[in-house]
Amino acid sequence: MKMPVALVWLLAFTNVLLIRGESNDATICKDHFMLDPRPHSVSILEFGAVGDGKYLNTLAFQNAIFYLKSFADKGGAQLYVPPGKWLTGSFNLTSHLTLFLEKGATILASPDQSHWDTVSSLPSYGRGKRYRSLINGDNLLDVVITGDNGTFDGQGAVWWEWFESGTLNYSRPHIIELVSSKNILISNLTFLNAPSVNIHPVYCSHVHIRKVLIETTVDSPYVLGVVPDSSDNVCIQDSTITVGHDTISLKSGWDQYGINYNRPTTNVHLRNLSLKSPTGAGISFGSEMSGGISDVTVELLTIQSSHVGVAFRTTRGRGGYIRNITISGVILSRVDTAIVADGHTGSHADDKYDRDALPVVTRVLMRNFTGEGIGLAGKFTGIGESPFTSICLSDIHLQTSSESWVCSNVSGFSDDVSPEPCQELMSSPSSCFVGGGIYGGDTAARGYYSW
Q1: Can you give the residue range of the structural domain that contains 424?
Q2: pLDDT tens digit string along 10-41?
Q3: Which of 12, 24, 144, 198 is the most exposed place for a label (fewest CB within 10 A)?
């Protein structure tokens, strides 16, 4: 079934060219992709797919992608998914490809465990096996996953049951996982009921995620929204995420495996997001951060009905660092703890971790927070041998119902913060003030900040 030529040119995109401005994390979302029409397009119907929600279409998707590989050096191609419910197991994408889900199209993940292959663990996370994700890509260039608000439904309930009962032999699959890939755009889509993570770019560069809606039931166990993992130049913006655990979690490897792989998550821009996680955090850093996390700008967040607003997590044996983080313009509502920085959180990959590998958390600025219905304003518990330093708070006003702040092994400074923070966060003004002003997060203000 061929699509009309005009529709092909309207819906298909090619050559995801990142038009870059200044190269720092605060401008990443201001950069944009130039989307030219893909010169070739096919419908999944041409490969025998049936959109009744019952027929298994794994082979149809695999055959379609195999066919479209032949257009990679001819400007790329689009795979068009029309309205319907398209049941499938996992399949791989290819370079210079657009996967387009029409309005009313739902790609349904098969709930049958036998339809999911197993693959080796990621090298920054250790040995063993895991289930392959629904949509996969490895060493790809120029991939667009988009639509007219089409849907990926991971049908995760059965995976959640297996996970909670302890009957799974391997880690749960994700909906989308792209590995060692570059120039990725994911937009205008809905993600429902992921077995584990919804979108997982790992070892990737230039990833732009925008205008996505991600939802699972709030009791889904350890289901995450977007996890940028050992990736750089990442933008996530204009999206709404409600999941059972952290909505956006920045990671970079686990213990000695992440230390040895040594690929940080860096140059990340998160903006204009609405987030909800009753058992997790709106934004989290770690606890798997052994490759390092740095140069992150977060702005314009609404976090509601969540366990934690912003969380920094690590533990002895992680190594790595969390540094040069700016978070501003955050509205919190009905959040148990607004800010958590915990140096004693997270399990270990195995017993071979180096207990002397101490993480470093430093140069973190949080400013312009407001909150109502907050339980605890903040809990900062660093590591005795590696305290958290240069934690800088400015223009933060929270309405709390209990003890305001808990602090140990942390130092920094605060300006215009209520309730009044603990003494440890009033102890080191030189770490936050240079030239008479506190760093405000914009380019012009960088000269004021000590780093």
Answers
A1: 247-451
A2: 343 334 444 333 345 657 887 666 667 899 99
A3: 24
Query: Smallest Cα–Cα separation from 214: which of 269, 160, 156?
Result: 156
Q: Are residues 292 and 254 in the same domain?
A: yes
Query: What's the CA gap between 245 and 249, in Å, rounded?
Result: 9
66/174 same-domain check: yes
What is the chain's Cα-based Rg?
Answer: 22
Is the pLDDT score of 441 beyond 50? no
Report the predicted TM-score, pTM, of the whole model to 2 decimal places: 0.92
From 245, 279, 313, give the residue that closes a domain. Answer: 245
Surface-to-core class of residue 238, CB atoms within 10 Å of its CB (0-12 exposed, 13-18 middle, 19+ buried): middle
